[in-house]
């Protein structure tokens, strides 16, 4: 007698699409997407309409560090050509003026209350950042990063011996007190076409 061939039953694949859909949703929900982060800058408040803006505001040149990035992505700091790798140290020297150099910002002494005490600092310093319209974005970001890193290091170097912590690890109230001594003063001018000047 011949053996009957058994018929193989078909696998029910109707739920495969549902499983694939659930896996897709799972990976979309659990995967983090990279998001663009902007540059943190606090803009000055707008000038009231009825307030007159003086034409010639006198600024002591020693209190301003001019940083210019031209259309060839060359960095000029107070007219001196500089590599971006040196900018952070130059900015720190400018912000602190430890030696009381008459070419660097004026020093002021002020009492910041308990916990901080009396500090000598460059109250009126400003870093003026200017870019050419032809400046490449990467060069602009490199300069921004160097300037922000200078402020971060200045604050950390102040906080570590005084509080035993870096600036970012301090409570909000103490951070605000340190920011009064070392506020991030980066003034950014509208990009111009310096190549035609």
Give a description of the structure:
The chain is of the alpha/beta class and 197 residues long. Helix content is 33%, strand content 15%. The protein has helices spanning 16-30, 84-96, 137-163, 172-181; strands at residues 64-69, 75-77, 80-82, 108-111, 118-121, 126-131, 186-188. The strands form two sheets. It has a five-stranded mixed β-sheet, covered by helices on one side. α2 (84-96) packs across α3 (137-163). The longest helix is centred in the last third of the chain and has 27 residues, at 137-163. It is elongated, with a radius of gyration of 29 Å. The model has no long low-confidence stretch (mean pLDDT 85).
Main traits of this protein?
197 residues; alpha/beta; five-stranded mixed β-sheet; two-stranded antiparallel ribbon; 7 strands; 33% helix
In helices, the fraction of residues equals: 25-40%
Low-confidence stretches: none
Number of strands: 7
Structural class, from secondary structure content? alpha/beta
Note the topology.
Layout: H1 16-30, E1 64-69, E2 75-77, E3 80-82, H2 84-96, E4 108-111, E5 118-121, E6 126-131, H3 137-163, H4 172-181, E7 186-188
Helix pairs in contact: 2-3
Summarize the structure.
The protein has 197 residues and is of the alpha/beta class. It has helices at 16-30, 84-96, 137-163, 172-181; strands at 64-69, 75-77, 80-82, 108-111, 118-121, 126-131, 186-188.
